[in-house]
Amino acid sequence: MILTIIIPHYNNVALLGRCLHSIVASKLGDELQVVVVDDGSTDSQRQQAESLVAELSSKDSKLTVQLITNPKNQGASAARNKGLLSAQGRFVWFVDADDEIDTELMNLWWPKLKELDNNVELLHIGPMVDGKQHVTKHPSPITHHPSRLSDILIPRSHCLDHTTYWISREFLMNNPDIRYIENCEILEDSIFVLQLLEKAKNIVSADDCSLYIRHTDSPSVTAGAWSKDKSATFMPFIQLFFSHLSQFKARHADLPHIEDLYHRYSYVYMRVLAVKGVPTALYRELFYKTIIQDTFIPRNIKERLLKNIVIHSLLSFVCRILRPSHD
After folding, report:
1. What is the domain extent for residue 45?
2. Is the pLDDT of residue 205 over 90?
3. In the chain, how many domains are there?
4. Order of strands, edge to edge, in the sheet holding 100-101?
5. Has residue 320 got a pLDDT over 80?
């Protein structure tokens, strides 16, 4: 079996169906395993998920579609870790239930996967494609080549997103410390990728293979303005991510893109915390005491403005008024 796709699911059967149908349509049969982890959904949603899995399994008797049930909602990280225990494929791919895969491109590129050396630990297939703008672009030719870590870390979109990587199951089994941090509500996927990149020695990139289609039609835990309570809840996770990123940067200071990568993520979260309406005191605690004071040097007028604590306070105040909270 070549690939195991692990999908955490919680009370979202309609979108899970879209995701699973895109996978089943690839008709890869016994070369593919799908593990759906129902993370404590309501009885009706769980029963619908069971019916969906049974329906899809009946359409392709060679395809293994397995449903695992958590009795209580424990979060996506715990669900992914649990799904990994049932994985049988050579590679593991973590996919979100509200997204889908490019079936046509998957079929086109699939034969190349079999040609990869057995010692490949990490396969980068990014970047992701926006569902609203998605058009299958056939790579010609479809190639894969050994990559340096610096090739992966070019500060482009999604370079630390877990959905753009296929991971050797053997590599994960040999490194039980590389797992999703449970109870971490945001940025757990990026921390997971940093752990992968830290230990993987044999990394391969697949040129132009953007197999992952991301959608935004599902409510997110981070959507809308963040109340003071939500901001206080999320801030330790953001700090944890930047702690991992800082340590990674220190250990790989010789990489040509590492400073740019760190700078990009710092700026992105300066902007995120502004538009989410995060209180100035919490913003100052993270960035002025942890990141910006010593390491962030603005490169343009936008960055200079966002670094200014007064500007941030004004933006946060306006966003709290204009953007409704999703609490």
Report:
1. 3-214
2. no
3. 2
4. 100-101, 212-214, 129-130
5. no
Beta bridge partners of 34: 5, 65
Distances (CA, A) of 293 to 72, 272, 286: 42, 18, 10
Q: Is 151 helix (H, G, I), strand (E, B) or coil?
A: helix
Check residue 310 and give left, alpha or beta (phi > 0: left; psi -120 to 50: alpha). Answer: alpha
| DSSP structure string for 40-59 | S--HHHHHHHHHHHHHHHHH
Task: Tell me, yes or no, whether 299 lies in a domain.
Answer: yes
Average pLDDT over residues 109-133: 83
pTM (predicted TM-score):
0.92
Please name the residues in contact with 83: beta carbons below 8 A apart, sequence gap of 6 or more: 6, 7, 8, 35, 36, 37, 68
Alpha carbon separation from 192 to 157, 175, 221, 327 (Å, rounded)? 16, 12, 19, 27
210 and 233 fall within a common domain? no
Mean pLDDT for the stretch of residues 182-211:
90
The verdict on residue 219 lying in a domain is no
pLDDT category at 81 given cuts 50, 70, 90 is very high
Q: Which of 214, 236, 267 is the last residue of a domain?
A: 214
Kindly state the average pLDDT of the residues 133-140: 72
Q: What is the mean pLDDT of residues 249-269?
A: 87
Q: Tell me how far CA of residue 249 lies from CA of 253, 254, 256, 266, 308, in angstroms.
A: 6, 9, 11, 13, 25
